[in-house]
Structure formats: structure tokens, C-alpha cells
Specification:
- The radius of gyration is 23 Å and the shape is globular.
- The strands form seven sheets. A six-stranded antiparallel β-sheet has the order 22-32-23-28-29-30, with no helix packed on it.
- Strand 24 and strand 25 form a beta hairpin.
- The relative contact order is 0.12.
- By secondary structure, it is mainly β.
- The chain folds into two domains: 321 residues, Glycosyl hydrolase domain, family 43 (Tachylectin-2, Chain A, 5 Propeller), CATH 2.115.10.20; 149 residues, Exo-inulinase, domain 1 (Jelly Rolls), CATH 2.60.120.
- It binds beta-D-fructofuranose (FRU).
Length: 493
């Protein structure tokens, strides 16, 4: 049964989504059909196609009562919009269908596990939100909410854990075919933790363990967890709120955290290393799936709560996902590279080798706002350089840039000049690995975004910008003796 609230959203997106022209959207990044999008949800394989759901408010370009938007794809790059799948239409989720995930049941149906938010009036007149985990089951288009929702509530969390911040379940299959899920939670010390539950059928769940917790070191509430095995390690991803900076590894604000380690016999994660997931400006709430050929692929909201007010106020859509990225562990670090399906979209190629750079210059055929370009910079033999800078999305008034200072191993991403009407929160500086002055940058541009994969995916920096599309120049400059190789492909629609 489709409720009136869900039907209204479906009618609305059908009617108004059609007015947004292809030329107003990114070419190969998923963007919301209409209105507002945040976290990816239910990123999964179902009936031979990839499915992507997301946090969705169809009616405006601002966050509002959360629905789930929905799309499906054969390659994670070309998406077909499907009707909105969940709406806040029951007593237990009337204040929002928050983030969650999806899995295929043995009987072939798709199960969505999500956070239902309910608000209760308090004696002093204020409202308090309660968060529970709920289930809906369907056929890839229509979903029926389970009659006995919620399936996990405040009763199921251990003593000292919150029922007001208890959200974003990520479901997965255990090795024996049963189900596991991890859920973000807040503890009495006001910081984050990840709870682990297990179930035989996806409907009845038991608490297993506290996988890991912040102890106030890595931010407050831990949102949107994911837990999986990768290259023989256990990997926990989560998005902490209100993180304090730690050197240049973690910046101040809503961050992303990757813990690599191993699960012990108590199902607690023994940490071996901790790192940021992405080092750019607009990246949050990633979620992964396992492809049929065994690749762990991650997608994230290409925005951040700290920066999401920075967008054109008249936008008909606001919110897009990052490129899906293949994950591996190399040298003890989580590394990311664009999914290989992107190679099939590559068009015209232009390449240069061993080009000396000094004063700001351009290269013939190297420009554009929709492209996949790899630039390798190194000192000229027996020489050295102090600074290399690459400007992109460059017009007469605007540009964004990425610069590298090899002596400090400092990489700097900036969109201060990209056309935003504030210049705060538009810079990131990070430390990269020492490679004797050499750095390799794979830069992927798609009209309104840049994703930079540093040194074969050892680090990534992601950001959006709304610079006029006519600003499509790319320039190179260096102080000292530097040479560059450039290989650039247009990405075809
Ligand atoms: C993360 C988040 C989640 C929540 C959702 C609400 O971005 O805050 O914790 O489920 O967004 O839209």
C-alpha cells in the first residue's frame, strides 16, 4: 500500500523532476531528481542491478522531513530514477526515515533497514526525538513497512547508550548466511560508538558488541557506520560529528573516519590504524557494497553539513554523490580509485610528457569541466622546485586550484576563487607521502565537482563548486625546476 504521503512525493518528483535539463546536472555523478539529497542509503546489488537510495526532501533544496529517493543502474554511472521508496508516514517514523541500508532476503525480496525518527512532546513543551531501527520489504520499486516495527529500539541498547542518538543501520550478510548490522550511537560521555547486532532473518535482532567507540578522541556522535572485510582486515567507516582537528589529518567539524584492524573473539575491533577517509571539503556519510565480481565499492554524499549552505539559493536540485570508488588496503592504508567502469566513458585523449613548467601556462587541448586527467609532477633531473600549482575551472574571474610544496609535502586544495560568496571553509591542506618531490594527481571533474586521487588513491580530496561552466580553463605553473606528464581524457555523456 502506498500511503498518501509517499504518493504525494512520487507525484511531485514525477511532475517537477522533468523540468531539470541534463545540461544543468553533473554528467556521470548521481544527482537528486529534484529537491535535496544527503546520505547514500541502501547502496546494494538487487536482481542484477545496482540500487542506490538516499536521504531525500523532494519539496525544496533544503533538508526537511526525510524520505528515501531511489535509482538503479547497470554500471553505477548511468542511473535510472525510480519512484521515492519511503516516506515519513507512520507513528514510529513520522519525523523522518533516516539513513539505512539494504540486503536481499533468501526469498528474493529486498529488505531495507532504516532509522525511524519519532518526536515526543516533553513536560516543558519542547520536543525530543527518539530513534529506532525499522524494516521495509519490497520488490525493488515498492516497499511495505513491517507490521511489527521498530525492530530495534532503546530497549536493545546497552546501559549508558542513547535512544535519542541511535541511527543509520548498515546491514550485511555474515559468513554463515545470517545477518549482521552496525548502528551509530552516542554514549554517556557524549561521544560516539558503533553497536553490533545479529539476526537470523533480518527482523529479530540481538545485541552482540560495541565494535569501537570514540572515547571523545575522534569526535562526538558517530554517524553512518559501515563494517566489512577488506584484504584480510576488518574496516570500520564512520562519520563523526564535531571532531577536533588532529594535525592536518582531521579537520575541525563533521569528519570521516576509517579504522583498520581485526575483530577479536568478543567482536570488538582491535585498532591497527586510524585515518581520514577523504581529505577534501565536501565528503560525508560514505556507504559500501560488494560487487558481484568481488570489489568493495564506496559512494558518499558529495557535501558536508559544514558547507551545505554554500550553494546557489535558486538551485532546483541540491546534492550529488561522489564517484563510486574501489577500495583496497595498501601499505596499511585505505586507498581509493574511481570504479573501472569509468574507463568506458573516456573520450578524446590528449597527452604530454616531460614538459618543463615555470610561469603560468596552458597546454593545447587541456581544458574542460568534464574530464579525467592524470598529472605527474617531478623535479627536473638535478633540479628542485618549491611550488607547483594547477588551476582548473578557470575563467577571467574564477578558478580553483591544487598546489604542492614538496619540501613540506604539503598539498593544498582551494576553491576560494570559485565564485562562492563567502571565502571561509574553502581550503584544505594535507600532508602527502614523500616521493622525492614527485606527486601524481588523478583529477576528475564533472561540471560542479572535483575529485583528486593522490598517488594512486593513497589519499583523496573531494569538493563541489558552482563556478559558471564557461570557466573551463586549466593552467600549470611552478617555482623552480619542475616537469610534468599530463594525460587527459574527456568523459563522454
Ligand atoms: C548523516 C545524518 C544521519 C541521519 C541523516 C538524516 O548525514 O545526520 O545520521 O540518518 O543524516 O538525514
Amino acid at each position: 500500500m502506498t500511503s498518501d504521503i509517499l504518493q504525494k512525493a512520487r507525484d511531485y518528483e514525477e511532475r517537477f523532476g522533468a523540468f531539470i535539463g541534463e545540461s544543468e546536472r553533473p554528467v556521470f555523478h548521481y544527482s537528486t531528481r529534484i529537491g535535496w539529497l544527503n546520505d547514500p542509503n541502501g547502496f546494494s546489488v538487487y536482481n542484477g542491478r545496482y540500487h542506490l537510495f538516499h536521504q531525500y526532501h523532494p519539496y525544496s533544496n533544503q533538508w526537511g522531513p526525510m524520505h528515501w529517493g531511489h535509482a538503479a543502474s547497470a554500471d553505477m554511472l548511468h542511473w535510472e530514477y525510480l519512484p521515492a521508496s519511503l516516506a515519513p508516514d507512520t507513528e514510529y517514523d513520522g519525523a523522518g526515515c533516516f539513513s539505512g541500508s539494504a540486503v536481499t532476503l533468501d526469498d528474493g525480496r529486498q529488505l531495507l533497514l532504516y532509522t525511524g525518527v519519532r518526536e515526543e512532546q516533553q513536560p516543558d513543551g519542547s520536543k525530543k526525538a527518539y530513534q529506532t531501527q525499522c524494516v521495509a520489504v519490497g520488490d525493488g520499486v515498492n516497499y511495505e513497512k513491517y507490521a511489527f516495527n521498530p525492530v530495534l529500539s532503546g530497549r536493545d541498547v546497552p546501559e549508558g547508550f542513547s535512544e535519542n542518538d541511535f541511527r543509520d543501520p548498515k546491514i550485511f550478510r555474515e559468513r554463515d548466511g545470517s545477518f549482521g548490522c552496525v548502528v551509530g550511537c552516542r554514549t554517556d560521555d557524549e561521544s560516539g560508538a558503533i553497536l553490533y547486532f545479529r539476526s537470523e532473518d533480518g527482523f529479530r535482532w540481538d545485541f552482540v558488541s560495541v565494535v569501537d567507540r570514540s572515547w571523545n578522541e575522534y569526535g562526538k556522535m558517530w554517524e553512518c557506520p559501515d563494517l566489512f572485510e577488506l584484504d584480510g582486515k576488518a574496516v570500520l567507516l564512520t562519520s563523526p560529528q564535531d571532531m577536533s582537528p588532529i594535525g592536518l589529518e582531521f579537520h575541525n567539524g563533521n569528519e570521516t573516519l576509517c579504522v583498520i584492524g581485526s575483530m577479536d573473539e568478543k567482536n570488538e575491533l582491535q585498532r591497527e590504524s586510524v585515518q581520514a577517509i577523504d581529505y577534501g571539503i565536501d565528503f560525508y556519510a560514505p556507504q559500501t557494497l560488494l560487487t558481484p565480481d568481488g570489489r568493495r565499492v564506496m559512494i558518499a554524499w558529495m557535501q558536508n553539513w559544514d558547507t551545505c549552505t554554500s550553494h546557489p539559493s535558486d538551485a532546483k536540485w541540491f546534492g550529488q554523490m561522489t564517484l563510486p570508488r574501489e577500495l583496497i588496503i595498501r601499505g596499511g592504508r585505505l586507498c581509493q580509485n574511481p570504479i573501472r567502469e569509468l574507463d568506458a566513458m573516456r573520450g578524446r585523449r590528449v597527452s604530454y610528457e616531460n614538459i618543463p613548467v615555470s610561469a603560468e601556462t596552458t597546454l593545447r587541448g587541456v581544458y574542460g569541466r568534464v574530464l579525467d586527467m592524470t598529472v605527474t609532477v617531478r623535479p627536473r633531473s638535478n633540479g628542485s622546485y618549491d611550488l607547483f600549482r594547477l588551476k582548473f575551472a578557470k575563467g577571467s574571474q574564477h578558478y580553483s586550484s591544487v598546489s604542492y610544496r614538496p619540501a613540506e609535502q604539503l598539498l593544498h586544495l582551494s576553491r576560494k576563487m570559485s565564485g562562492f560568496n563567502r571565502d571561509f571553509v574553502h581550503d584544505r591542506r594535507i600532508i602527502v607521502a614523500d616521493r622525492a618531490g614527485e606527486i601524481k594527481l588523478r583529477i576528475i571533474l564533472d561540471r560542479f565537482s572535483a575529485e583528486i586521487f593522490v598517488n594512486d588513491g593513497e589519499q583523496t580530496l573531494t569538493m563541489t563548486y558552482y563556478t559558471p561552466l564557461s570557466a573551463d580553463g586549466i593552467s600549470f605553473e611552478a617555482h623552480g625546476d619542475a616537469v610534468i606528464d599530463v594525460e587527459k581524457y574527456d568523459v563522454r555523456a
